[in-house]
Amino acid sequence: MGKVAGKRVTFHASARLGAIAASLAAAAALLLPSTALAAATTTTEIGSAQGTFQCVNAVDFVQASTSGLSGLNYAVPSGGTTISSWSVLAGADTGPIALEVWQPTAPPTYTLEVMSPTVSLNPGLNNIILDSPLPVAAGDLIGLKLFGFDECAQQTGNLDDTIGSTFEVPASVGVPIQLIIVPGFELNVAATVDVTVAPPPPPPTPTSADQCKHGGWQGLSDTNGTLFKNQGDCVSFVATNGANLAG
Fold first, then answer.
1. Residue 22 domain-assigned?
2. One domain for residues 57 and 79
3. Residue 93, class by beta-carbon neighbours within 10 Å (0-12 exposed, 13-18 middle, 19+ buried)?
4. pLDDT tens digits for 81-91?
5. pTM across the whole model
6. Contacts of the segment 165-169: beta carbons below 8 A, 24+ positions apart
7. Cβ 102 vs Cβ 111: under 8 Å
8. CB under 8 Å to 114, separation ≥6 — which residues?
């Protein structure tokens, strides 16, 4: 029994129980794991910002291939969407320099996809955060644009580590160009790639009651991707041709 604005109000047991049950149901819904998973975004590093081999000015470079012995990868992985930052190691020569993204059109022909703003460097490791991330796609390769003398690569001696170069013939964005391939080098550039990871597909829906038995219901869902609570829940879905959804 309660009191509201000077009047006595009687709370019946059934009303109280109904309110409690509704509250518990709402709380339980918050605790249940969601079956509708959204795509997740993560980052991965490609390339390597190290190398003291000096290159001449006004040259475009792309890391055409790597041997895999160093464990380095200069290619955008599956799910890659943008490059948000990049880095390069500078010596006495400090640029200017820019990050390039190339598409292997038909090697040794490559297409320059996009280039970052030009920056001047400080001696040592330079980490450059991009105000506007560069759009990329899986399989794109990172490279460098030099405007002066710079330490652009490390010499590996492995013939499977190859860089492609324009050798003073400037590349234009969107125009395929045949590059000169030089073996035994890895470019002095690394990049942070933003990667979108697609959610896993929902569990399959049952087509027969037998699939729900012996714990089979635990790996099945309704047409909305919602997992079944128990075997009866699953069987009911099958018996009603999908009308009775899970839950």
1. no
2. yes
3. middle
4. 999 999 999 98
5. 0.69
6. 165/59, 165/60, 165/61, 166/59, 166/60, 166/61, 167/59, 168/56, 168/58, 168/59
7. yes
8. 100, 101, 134, 135, 136, 173
Give 32-52 pLDDT, tens digit per residue: 444 445 668 899 999 999 888
Question: Hey, what are 61's tokens?
Answer: 């470079």
Q: Under the phi-then-psi rule, with left for phi > 0, alpha for psi from -120 to 50, and beta for the rest, what region is 58?
A: left
Whether 205 and 141 share a structural domain: no
Domain count, the chain: 2
Residues 123 and 166 grouped into a single domain? yes
| Type of residue at 27 | A
